[in-house]
Amino acid sequence: MFICVGTPPKENGEADLSYVEDVSHAIADVMDSYKLIVEKSTVPVKTGDKVSRTIRAYNKRNVDFDVVSNPEFLREGSAVNDFMHPDRVVVGCESEMARQLMEKLYSPLKAPILFTDIKSAEIIKHASNSFLATKVSFINAISRICELAGADVGKVAEGMGMDRRIGRQFLDAGIGYGGFCFPKDAEAFIRISEKLGYDFKLLKATQEINLEQKRHFVRKVEKALWVVKGKTLAVLGLAFKPNTDDMRFAPSIYIITELQKEGAIINAYDPEAMEKAKQIFKGINYCSGPYEAAKGADAMLILTEWPEFRELDLKKIKSLMRHALVIDGRNVYDPEIMGQEGFTYLSMGRKEVV
Ligand code: UGA
After folding, report:
1. Residue 268 pairs with which residues in a beta bridge?
2. 239-249 tens-digit pLDDT
């Protein structure tokens, strides 16, 4: 039996485990023979103990069971491929029977399986997401230094990434990470560490840099426009990343809300996320495509790097806009080409083209 219920954040950032408890109780109620209970949900370390305790308490027929931690590493937008070709499968288990069943279950994937104790497996999930989030914040911090020094963060990432110990993935500077995993898992891991008695300063800084990057982008817009009030902004991309309609913790939420407060008129387009965005933003004009959004705009903001934005007819975009100003939060375009096309082009951690 797999436990795959949500563990949404509570007000204080801790994971809400009530669904995990409910389902543990429900499993105990129906168990009539040995059961292997696999914890898939992202949970704080020591949740396995609590699941075992709950099941034992409601296990009326006194049936044997094992609890296993088997964290999930799928990404939105590539979940099936990630499932079929995992870098690793992590299994935290503490009995030979559980180990053998899990080994058999995953054998068709022919992926490396790491067996650990339950608590280590639980920590691997939070540690992995927090490390990736830290990698993103690290390159965003470097992007700020590049802006101040007149260097190019794309080149810096390339040079760092060629070192196999570092790797190029998750070194794309931008407006920070969003989605329902990194922000909530980092926050939860900070709380988990605190409860255990460790002040996870590095992860706190990761989260702070992530917020600061969005503030920095808003300041870029303010500086470029001089006065935001009454200006029309074409916003391309609303989802937290391409190939999803997911708006949860999307950087666009903070950025658009701040600019609306200052009186900007927002013409937005996203290939997938507009329906979900309608439940979040008030007073935005939703457009049928990038060209409609660009009409009469004082600036174009790129907030998600959808592949179709790389293919835009830049001459057409320029002719539609009131001012040829592009502020690119995802470094989609080549600054040199934007300069040749006659745009003022501001991006993240790269030279301004004015
Ligand atoms: C993430 C992890 O990558 C998965 O391994 C994990 O299973 C999942 O969380 C989860 O816990 O369920 P996901 O949230 O789908 O997956 O998205 P990612 O592709 O990891 O991107 C997260 C955020 O980081 C996005 O906002 C993306 O724009 C940002 N990012 C990523 C950057 O800003 N720069 C990068 O170089 C990479």
Report:
1. 235, 286
2. 999 999 999 99
